Amino acid sequence: MDSQWNGNFSRFDLVAKTDEHVRTVVQVRDIEVGGDEFVVMAGPCAVETERQVLETAEAVAVAGARILRGGAYKPRSSPYTFQGLGVEGLKILAKARAETGLAIVTEAMCPEDVGVIAEYADIMQVGARSMENYALLQAVGACGRPVLLKRGMCATLQDLLQSAQIIAAHGNSDIILCERGIRTFETATRNTFDIAAIAVLKAVSHLPVIADPSHASGIRALVPPLARAAAAIGADGLLVEVHPAPEEAWSDGKQSLTFHQFREMMHDLEPYLALREIPRRSRLELVASRGGH
Ligand code: PEP
Ligand code: MN
Q1: Which side of the chain, N or C, has fewer Cβ within a 10 Å radius?
Q2: One-character DSSP codes across 196-259
Q3: CA angle at residue 128 from 174 to 118, to 5 degrees?
Q4: Considering only CA atoms, which residue is closest to atom 3 of ligand 1?
Q5: What is the separation of C-alpha 81 from the centre of its chain, rounded to a whole number of angstroms?
Q6: Distance from the CA of 213 to the center of ligand 2, in angstroms?
Q7: Burial class (CB in 10 A: 0-12, 13-18, 19+), 80
Q8: Nearest Cα residue to 97 out of 63, 54, 59, 60
Q9: Rounded-to-integer distance, Cα 164 and Cα 209, Å
Q10: Which of 237, 262, 175, 221 is nearest to 41 (CA)?
Q11: Which residues pair with 210 in a beta bridge?
Q12: Which CA distances in Å does 13 have to 50, 236, 272, 279?
């Protein structure tokens, strides 16, 4: 690692790690993201029906997830596919929260929707395609809810931290960073999971960092191994797509786990969670704060 790397990141003074500010714990209802617990957020790509969401919420809660994910406003690459249920979807998520106690994370795509989404959501998701939507970053910066900021698929870690800085500069430092895979020349997976990003972000920023192995791989079978790698390298949690019948999902079925697969993934994570202590006291933190070799 060259001696410049921390210098570059420390420009983002509101989100960069310093000797005084080592760790931010984002409080979401009774859950601490970035604290000692490994926080798993799980649920369908999109809110489709009340039954689909309630069944999924129940299954992921029993398996140990703390937060329910599900898009009511969907950024779709085709204008002819399902675009999301909007406010109806938010109401379904709120019902699932009332029934299971799970907190809710859901995506906002434009500043105009931030107000209504913040009425229902516990965490506002900024998707990969919106990471550089500065009007949206400003709006979530002022919305009074924690933000899950996903890395753009062509964004460097500096770009990601720059976007986090914008949210923080608008008054909101409850930000969770998310590595969700980037575009590379490799086509075997939907995106390329940048595992080093987690270690770098944990070293240079005080913000919590989670991994999204679902969008990072696009392939169901790869989700559990990538989740284990993320836990071992020191991620603070996961964002995982789960669906009652992935083959029938209206979006991202190929990467969605069944309830059974999700339970198995959670079970198999256990030994890897114990390994999180090692990166926590790793030399990376020292290298970052000293800016040395
Ligand atoms: C999602 O979480 O469903 C999503 C659209 O993710 P991304 O923005 O990472 O593509
Ligand atoms: Mn998805």
Answers
A1: C
A2: HHHHHHHHHBSS-EEE-HHHHH--GGGHHHHHHHHHHHT-SEEEEEB-SSGGG-SS-GGGPBPH
A3: 45
A4: 45
A5: 24
A6: 11
A7: exposed
A8: 54
A9: 12
A10: 237
A11: 178, 237
A12: 43, 21, 32, 23
CA distance 103 to 198: 24
Cβ neighbours of residue 11 under 8 Å, at least 6 residues apart?
Answer: none
Nearest ligand to the CA atom of 107: 1
Cα end-to-end span (Å), the chain: 6
Within 8 A by CB and 6+ apart from 22, the residues are 206, 285
Mutate to test the pocket of ligand 1, among 41, 129, 147, 210 (most ligand atoms within 8 A of CB): 129
Q: Which CATH superfamily is domain 3-289 in?
A: Aldolase class I (3.20.20.70)
**How confident is the prediction along the chain (293 residues), in pLDDT tens digits per residue?**
443 456 677 779 999 998 899 999 999 999 999 999 999 999 999 999 999 999 999 999 999 999 999 999 998 889 999 999 999 999 999 999 999 999 999 999 999 999 999 999 999 999 999 999 999 999 999 999 999 999 999 999 999 999 999 999 999 999 999 999 999 999 999 999 999 999 999 999 999 999 999 999 999 999 999 999 999 999 999 999 999 999 999 999 999 999 999 999 999 999 999 988 888 776 565 455 544 44
Three-class secondary structure of residue 41 per DSSP: strand
Ligand approaching nearest to the C-alpha of 127: 1
Pairing of strands 31-33, 26-28: antiparallel
